[in-house]
Specification:
alpha/beta; 5-stranded parallel sheet; 5-stranded mixed sheet; 25 helices
Length: 532
Amino acid sequence: MLKVVVVDDEILVRVGLKTFVPWSEHGFRLVGEAANGREALELIRREGCEILLTDIQMPEMDGLTLLENIRAEQLEMHIIIMSNHEEFNYVRKALQLGAADYLLKLTMEPQELEQKLLALRDKIMQERKLQSREREMRREISANSREAREKRFRDILVKSCSPAEIRECMSAYGYNDNSWTYHVACIRIARYEQVMADNRYKSEKLLAYSVSNILMEILKSRAQGELVELDNGRFALLSVVPPDDMLNEMAESVKLYLDLDLVIGLSEPCADVRSIQVARERAELALDAAFYDGVGGVYAYSQVAHWEQADNAPLIVPIEKFARLIALRDERGLQEAMREWAAAIGNRRCWSPERVKESWIQLVHSFSSSLPDPEGDVYSFPPYRDQYPYHAIRTAETLDDLQEWLTGWIPALIDCLKTRSQRRWRPEVQTVAELIRANFDTTLKVSNLARQVGFNEAYLSALFKKETGETIMDFTIRLRMGKARELLKQPGVKIYEVSEAIGYSDANYFTKLFKKMEGLHPQDYRKRYFGK
């Protein structure tokens, strides 16, 4: 039974909450009630609590202070906030302090409360199963010795270790034969973001554990070597024998048992342990060969070594050709031109994926000039498959993925261009757009905008979308992200300062929005701009 505590200074609300839900029937036990945060905190310390239902405004200790105390004492529980309409600022603060959900007291129905409680119950049960499984995994692994060993080899492969530190570590773990040749491979789970989104493995830890188990079993049976986990579905492998056959077996086994594709990059052999980190960097570069060949497979550094020189060669973007097709609104012609250009790039295979992607970004950016209104830019084009163009390009793992997404997006692009070229915005919509431009870094409410032009909120929202092709929210976000890109090009401005400057108090929320549009975290965007 999950322990529940109810906190509200109104006795009728507490009575109602106790009678709304058949608690025991659904696996809950009401362990007590309190009239304020101070009483609630004492009750929670004494009885324990897994679900807390609490009001915000209460005497002696309000709900926010209660949440702050719960966080300070690291008390684990799930919290549902109850509030009135005028308390949304408090609700936002409560959510930042860890509340899981909220209810409006004035409109709360028993069914709504029951649904939220049942959802929390299912979440808690799932978390408990996962925690139990992870404890079981930890017991199976000799954590202390294995983790220490893996950390030392991770440092050798990834960090800047001195030759003396490398030799000391290698000798300590039995790599002391001067005649040995070392091979380094980098391994990543293909389409990792999609695999995590599918949620088959429930957690990153469980996924990494499942893959590393298979890789370790094969490594132990075939060669003396080390496997270390990096991040985001990536691993590095160090071996003292040529690992080609072993790597193929690893890829086949992971595909057979987990239905996952692996991309594996292999360095050239190195006889000097001091070259191990360079070998790891080259194995990482070898992964990029999959961009041309497909998702899975084993690739050698020799397949990509020439890209460093080729990146200096021009990759000419056929902007004029595409501009003519855009002017004609030739949907099929554009799709065919994209396929032809992708095929030409694929046939030569002489540019790095990053260079290719930047050329496609340059092309898509040029489409903005086709938009007739002053707000036209690439960020105002509609998403396709819930992705914006830059995000889709930058996160594409293969050239085929990139080309396939863009050709699929072309109909939405053409429809957008046709729609916008046929009308001018109504004066009221232009006024609203100007108000948003002038105040996008503040908390904007549609109701206030509607009042300025004499419309009701629903009508303005529908009219704005019809006239501009964007919702008021999307229009505002686009302006904010444009300002964010400008600020990120100023090296002295911190990420949280960028977030606050464009109207977001939560820097994590800003980061998610930015990545959704750009395909890069703000930090990575800044690194790309400054070339570091």
